[in-house]
């Protein structure tokens, strides 16, 4: 049983999923003076960016008075309720986002940076809002009849605007498995050709239709490295809205350790704990950063070998 809370996971928010279709309840949320609004600025390259206070490390949420003054007509997506009341998100065009950032003494921040820099609640809220924003921005027409879609349930569902069709759509989520495979006292890591030559990570891939998660783990590991996986069990998961993945972390044991690197990777190797520690301390090896579940999986495996990854990386030369 894992006690890890991965970055973006564990968001303490009551989503009120059952109430989002109740018109009277929806009206009460919209009119609640305690409501706060997370602004998401369109960014074609990096995805939506959030407004963050110029000083400190918190999201710069708009209060209801600010929202009514600055963005009275903008459609808001309901995120949920915390102890201080309802939380919504609003998408704005890049130019308006830049203007509001200036007026509100705020700055724009991308989600990867937020995952490292912001408190867990703020990072998780941003990840959740960004996943919905990406879906809303990209699912605009019915894939059955091509009529425009209407947004319903405070931003959580869409329906084809042609009553003869009325096909419904839900936020897209792409499950992906990510796995640390062990063989005796070694673990399997791989690297992609586009990465920094020192960087190594756990193997990962999307789940295909007709597969269980365990099937996907076995297929991906074999395709990417040639290694055959035997025992396989769940570790932990992580929302990964880049743009719409759900990362499902596993630990597995090899039943055949023979490596035959597939087309997706530049290299795959077995590493002992000592080799990882020596490589990290010498600065010629790095593993996935703390943002990702991959880091948690490598840290978990190293801990079983008696090594604390974060203590080792803290002693390593700074990465450029
Ligand atoms: Zn349709």
Topology at a glance:
Layout: H1 23-31, E1 36-41, E2 49-53, E3 62-63, H2 64-70, E4 76-82, E5 85-92, H3 94-103, E6 106-109, H4 111-117, H5 120-138, E7 149-152, E8 157-160, E9 168-169, E10 174-183, E11 186-191, E12 199-200, E13 203-206, H6 213-225, E14 228-240, E15 245-256, E16 267-272, H7 273-282, E17 286-287, H8 293-304, H9 309-315
Parallel strand pairs: 1-5, 10-15, 12-17
Antiparallel strand pairs: 1-2, 1-3, 2-6, 4-5, 7-8, 8-9, 10-11, 10-13, 11-16, 14-15
The structure holds zinc ion (ZN).
Q: Can you walk through the features of this model?
A:
With 320 residues, the chain is α+β, with helices and mostly antiparallel strands. It has 3 domains: 138 residues, Nucleoside Triphosphate Pyrophosphohydrolase (Alpha-Beta Complex); 32 residues, no CATH class; 134 residues, Nucleoside Triphosphate Pyrophosphohydrolase (Alpha-Beta Complex), CATH 3.90.79. 29% of the residues lie in helices and 30% in strands. Strands 1, 2, 3, 4, 5 and 6 form a 6-stranded mixed β-sheet that branches. Strands 10, 11, 13, 14, 15 and 16 form a 6-stranded mixed β-sheet that branches. Strand 4 and strand 5 form a beta hairpin. The longest helix has 19 residues. It is globular. The two termini are 36 Å apart. The structure holds zinc ion. Zinc ion binds next to loops.
């Amino acid at each position: 049983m894992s006690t890890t809370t991965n970055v973006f996971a564990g968001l303490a928010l009551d989503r009120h999923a059952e109430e989002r279709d109740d018109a009277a309840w929806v009206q009460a949320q919209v009119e609640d003076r305690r409501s706060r609004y997370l602004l998401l600025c369109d960014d074609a390259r990096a995805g939506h960016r959030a407004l963050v206070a110029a000083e400190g490390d918190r999201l710069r949420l708009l209060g209801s008075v600010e929202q009514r003054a600055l963005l009275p007509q903008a459609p808001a997506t309901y995120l949920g309720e915390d102890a201080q009341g309802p939380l919504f998100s609003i998408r704005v065009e890049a130019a308006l986002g830049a203007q509001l950032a200036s007026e509100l003494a705020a700055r724009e921040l991308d989600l990867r940076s937020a995952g490292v820099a912001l408190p867990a609640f703020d990072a998780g809220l941003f990840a959740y809002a960004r996943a919905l924003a990406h879906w809303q921005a990209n699912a605009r027409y019915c894939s059955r009849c091509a009529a425009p879609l209407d947004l319903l349930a405070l931003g959580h569902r869409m329906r084809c605007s042609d009553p003869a069709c009325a096909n419904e759509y839900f936020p897209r989520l792409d499950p992906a498995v990510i796995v640390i495979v062990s063989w005796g006292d070694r673990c399997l890591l791989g690297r992609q050709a586009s990465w920094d030559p020192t960087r190594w990570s756990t193997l990962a891939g999307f789940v295909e239709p007709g597969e269980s998660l365990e099937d996907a783990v076995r297929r991906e590991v074999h395709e990417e490295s040639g290694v055959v996986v035997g025992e396989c069990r769940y570790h932990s998961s992580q929302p990964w809205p880049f743009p719409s993945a759900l990362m499902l972390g596993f630990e597995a044991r090899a039943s055949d350790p023979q490596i035959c690197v597939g087309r997706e990777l530049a290299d795959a190797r077995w590493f002992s704990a000592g080799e990882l520690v020596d490589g990290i301390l010498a600065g010629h090896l790095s593993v996935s950063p703390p943002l990702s579940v991959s880091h948690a999986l490598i840290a978990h495996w190293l801990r079983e070998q008696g090594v604390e990854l974060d203590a080792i990386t803290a002693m390593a030369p700074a990465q450029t």
